[in-house]
Write a structure and sequence with these properties.
mainly beta, two-stranded antiparallel sheet
Length: 165
């Protein structure tokens, strides 16, 4: 009988030693938050109006001034608006685009910038940073006909295109 009790005790001991251990878990929820300051910045620019004019010449219209690309935080409700500074001329809004005018070398010029053409950005994932939404603006300009000009005045003036978002 003692041998059978020893055998039974050995089986119980082995059973207790080989019993699976169960892990216990506890959890707590928490918030992840971020304060985002949205912005737009110039990504690429090739702007500049370069007129070649002979005094008393014909009007020049549609002179290409180049493109400027602003990249912006995704999710704006509306496209940014654009205007020109008024330091060296005028500016007026035309929807999301703008027109302006001024004087250079004694010649009256006009300029216009189109409404921004949006290219949607891509959302970030846990492995990529995503891309911004881009707005491409196209600048054009023109000169009025029959102008004498003034060779004693500056042949270059600086203008600024202002994007409001």
């Amino acid at each position: 009988m003692k041998a059978s009790h020893l055998a039974a005790a050995a089986v119980v001991s082995l059973t207790l030693l080989s019993a699976p251990a169960y892990a216990a878990t506890a959890s707590q929820t928490f918030n992840v938050s971020a304060t985002l300051t949205s912005l737009c910045r110039v990504n690429a620019t090739t702007l500049g109006l370069a007129f070649t004019y002979t005094a008393f010449g014909a009007a020049q219209t549609g002179v290409a001034g180049g493109n400027v690309i602003f990249e912006c935080t995704r999710g704006f409700g509306a496209s940014p608006t654009v205007a020109f500074d008024t330091t060296n001329g005028g500016s007026s809004l035309t929807g999301a685009g703008a027109t302006g005018d001024g004087m250079v070398a004694g010649l009256a010029y006009t300029m216009a910038v189109s409404a921004g053409v949006a290219t949607a950005g891509t959302a970030a994932t846990n492995t990529t940073v995503g891309t911004p939404t881009q707005y491409t603006y196209t600048l054009t300009g023109g000169l009025l006909a029959n102008q004498a000009g003034d060779s004693s005045l500056a042949t270059t003036v600086v203008r600024t295109m202002v994007v409001t978002y």
